Amino acid sequence: MAEDIIKKGTANRWQGIDPVKGKLYLTRSRVLHIASALHFRRGETSMPLDEIKSVEIDDNLLYKLPVPNAITITMKDDTRHKFVVNRRKDWKKKIDRALEDMNNENIEK
Fold first, then answer.
1. CA-to-CA distance for 85 and 83, rounded, in angstroms?
2. By three-state DSSP, how is residue 2 classified?
3. Secondary structure of residue 96 in the 3-state scheme
4. How far is Cα 28 from Cα 98, in angstroms, rounded to an integer?
5. For 37-90, how does the pLDDT look when each residue is reduced to its tens digit (9 = 90+)?
6. CA 25 to each of CA 85, 90, 95, 97: distance values in angstroms, whole numbers, following the listed order
7. Are 10 and 33 in contact (CB under 8 A)?
8. Vertex 25, ends 22 and 29: CA angle to 5°?
9. 53 Cβ partners below 8 Å, 6+ apart?
10. Residue 47 in contact with residue 76, Cβ under 8 Å?
11. What pLDDT shows up at residue 106?
12. So what's the pLDDT on residue 103?
């Protein structure tokens, strides 16, 4: 990956009822989930920062009990992407900061 990586970590992306294991990357231009090569649902999910509407702290349900380990990224077209991550507050903070930096750069242009 040629992009500057701000943050990376393991993450499961929920696709329907199936978790897609992989890695989550935050760069200066997008959030990217790359599915594990061993997972049957291979591929990438790319979320350009300029198309992200919001990032929310979320819970994952385990046997109907809430587990505080997820973030949900909502796109401007209202598509939602839910990820199970470690240090979810740090992920939200860094994505929010990247969005703010991108908006500041656009204002300066």
1. 6
2. coil
3. helix
4. 6
5. 665 556 789 999 999 999 999 988 777 888 899 999 999 999 999 999 999 999
6. 11, 13, 10, 14
7. no
8. 140
9. 74, 75, 76, 78
10. no
11. 67
12. 81
Contacts 24+ apart (CB under 8 A), 1-4: 1/25, 1/27, 1/32, 3/27, 3/28, 3/29, 3/30, 4/28
How far, CA to CA in Å, does 102 sit from each of 21, 49, 51, 96?
Answer: 28, 8, 11, 10
Determine the Cα–Cα distance for residues 55 and 50; give it in Å rounded to an integer. Answer: 13
The secondary structure element, H or E, covering residue 36 is none
Say how far apart CA 14 and CA 20 lie, in whole Å: 6
| Lookup result for tokens 């994505």 | 95
> Position 7: which residue type?
K
Domains and CATH numbers, the chain: 5-108 (2.30.29.30)
**In this structure, which amino acid lies at residue 56?**
E
3-state secondary structure of 105: helix
